[in-house]
């Protein structure tokens, strides 16, 4: 069983980035093998604060760290706020990057990055900064042609996911690259 945490950089209820992740969930459901896709909401996490971290005072943070630590991979879709990832997503990564008495849950975590926006560039500008933060946190970012969904608000959806064949194909390719890297990491662990 491959467990993937789906992380949207948006807190909006009908977010185009959440629709990207629902599309990925649908793609995974149609693939051979067993895949579990679990969503993690950035909105549930408090603002990062060292004193709160020292006192281990947030059940939401502990649950998020446990969820990511127990997963094989992350799939993140982000909007671009002034060309960067939103603060809520950066805050979530700040929490996840911190390991108290244990490595960060992001260390070595295979991670795919996509973006979506109503704008023409589809949030592409935020992807480089997001990948950079992930790499500084020790995550293993999947190398793939960027998937940035422009004009996302105008694309057809069904059950909260996108149905555009070209977009589904691009997301399926990125999902395949993610799963291939997860398999590569698992194979490397067996050889050790």
State the CATH topology: Rossmann fold
Q: Could you spell the SSE succession in H and E letters?
A: EHEHHEHEHEEEEH
Beta-strand segment tally: 8
Radius of gyration: 16 Å
Count of domain modules: 1
Low-pLDDT windows of residues: none
Our count of helices gives: 6
Largest sheet: 6 strands, parallel
Morphology call: globular
Which second-level CATH architecture applies? 3-Layer(aba) Sandwich
Coarse structural class: alpha/beta
> What is the overall pLDDT average?
94
CATH class: Alpha Beta
Report what the structure shows.
It is a single chain. The protein is α/β, with parallel strands linked by helices and 192 residues long. It has helices at 16-29, 50-54, 59-69, 87-96, 124-136, 165-191; strands at 2-8, 35-41, 73-78, 110-116, 140-141, 148-149, 157-158, 161-162. The protein has one domain (2-191): 3-Layer(aba) Sandwich (Rossmann fold), CATH 3.40.50.360. Helix 1 (16-29) packs across helix 6 (165-191). It is globular and about 45 Å long. The two termini are 21 Å apart. The mean pLDDT is 94.
């Amino acid at each position: 069983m491959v467990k993937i945490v789906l992380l949207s950089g948006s807190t909006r209820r009908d977010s185009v980035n959440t629709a990207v992740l629902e599309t990925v969930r649908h793609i995974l459901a149609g693939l051979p093998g067993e895949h579990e896709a679990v969503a993690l909401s950035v909105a549930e996490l408090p603002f990062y604060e060292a004193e709160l971290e020292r006192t281990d005072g947030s059940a939401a943070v502990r649950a998020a760290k446990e969820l990511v630590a127990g997963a094989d991979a992350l799939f993140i879709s982000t909007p671009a706020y002034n060309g960067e990832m939103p603060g809520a997503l950066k805050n979530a990564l700040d929490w996840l990057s911190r390991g108290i008495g244990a490595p960060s849950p992001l260390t070595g975590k295979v991670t795919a990055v996509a973006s979506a926006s109503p704008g023409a560039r589809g949030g592409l500008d935020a992807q480089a900064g997001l990948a950079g933060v992930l790499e500084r946190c020790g995550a293993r970012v999947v190398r793939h042609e960027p998937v940035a969904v422009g004009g996302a608000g105008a694309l057809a959806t069904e059950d909260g996911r996108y149905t555009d064949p070209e977009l589904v194909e691009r997301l399926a390719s990125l999902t395949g690259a993610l799963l291939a890297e997860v398999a590569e990491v698992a194979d490397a662990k067996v050889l050790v």
